[in-house]
Amino acid sequence: MNKLVILRSLPSRTTIIIRIMVSVVFISEGLQKIIFPEIRGAGRFRSIGLPAPEFLGYAIGITEVICGLLILSGFLTRLAAIPLIIIMLAAFAATKADIYVNEGFWGFMHQSRTDWAMFWGCVFLFIKGGGRWSVDSRLTRIQQ
Questions:
Q1: In this predicted model, what pLDDT tens digit does every residue of 83-102 receive, in sequence order?
Q2: CB burial of residue 38 (10 Å; 0-12, 13-18, 19+)
Q3: Global pTM?
C-alpha cells in the first residue's frame, strides 16, 4: 500500500475555490482569536461557559490558522480538514444549540449559515483532497 494515499487528490481544477474559501475564513477567524482574545477568543469562550477559556481560545485560534494555511497550500489537506470539522461540530453544540431552542429552526439556520458552509467545505476537502493545484497532488505525482 502506498504510504502517500492520504495525499491523493481527485484531479479537479476547481477544488482550489473551496480551499480558498475555507482557508481564508479559518485563517481570519483564528488570527482574530489570537489578536482580539477578549472579543473572539478567551472572552467569548468564557461568556458561553466553556472550560479553560484562555487555553481554548489560543489553542483553537492556532489550530485554525495552521490548518487554514495547510488547506490554502493544499498540503496534508485531508488531515488538516479533520480538526476543522471537529471545531465546527463543537461550535454548533456550544454556540448554536441555544439559538435553536430560543429562535427555532429558521433562526438556527440563519445564524449558522457560515458554520454550515465551513463544515461542508471541510467535509468536501476531506473526501476529495486538495485537488489538481495542491502540494498533495504534486507530491503524489513525484512519487508515482
A1: 999 999 999 999 999 999 99
A2: exposed
A3: 0.90
